[in-house]
Amino acid sequence: MGRLSRLRMRDVATLTEEPLQLLAPAIADTLLHLDLSECNLVAEDGFMQLAKHCRALEHLALVHQFAVTDQVIQTFILHCPHLRLLDISGCRLLTERALAPWIDDTIDTSQSRLKILNISGLEPDVSANAVLHLLQSLPHITEICLGVAYDRTDAMRIIELANDASLFSLFWLDIARCATICRSTTANNSFNHFVRHQPHLPSLYDNNDNDNQDSSSLFTLN
């Protein structure tokens, strides 16, 4: 059991948190891929145990989970520095506070390995400001799926601001893939160089000394 690297228990109607709490310490150092999507009897404690123990995780899918809270996702982010894929689409309890470690710079985002983030179905609980900040601060991000219900005008405005701030036309919107913001792979080297040499990227979260608006009012559309 200690060598288990992949665990897929998607849509297991009878799964509860008890076996996960027992399993978590045994697979703590080896588990790389975890998919517990649509296992709706698993309580928050089960996810928290996995988040605290499974620090080697690279791929995490918790789609349409009823008990996944902001604190659960924050704990995974804080304890799993190797995350490359995070799919939390359709989790009804989540807000943008789930992504707070990346948004509020609780951790050094320049060290993040995240490439793919799926937040489909979380609108309007994840603001345009939050999406923009993620694009600006996560150096390896290649895709953020916003979902088919996301306002296309807002998505295009996010891309415009992200590209302006990075000095490169890096991001574009793939409508065919549920309004996914994609990063151009041809500019990866330039973007990584830019991130490494900028102590602080421009962001709509920045407070202007001459402007008393809060961050929620800073995202404006033409």
UniProtKB/TrEMBL annotation:
Name of the featured protein: F-box/LRR-repeat protein 15-like leucin rich repeat domain-containing protein
PANTHER family, A to Z: PARTNER OF PAIRED, ISOFORM B-RELATED
Superkingdom field: Eukaryota
Entry's Gene Ontology BP terms: SCF-dependent proteasomal ubiquitin-dependent protein catabolic process
SUPFAM superfamilies: RNI-like
Domain F-box/LRR-repeat protein 15-like leucin rich repeat: start-end pairs: 27-185
Gene3D superfamilies: Ribonuclease Inhibitor
GO cellular component: SCF ubiquitin ligase complex
SMART domains noted in UniProt: LRR_CC
Pfam families found in the cross-reference section: DUF7885
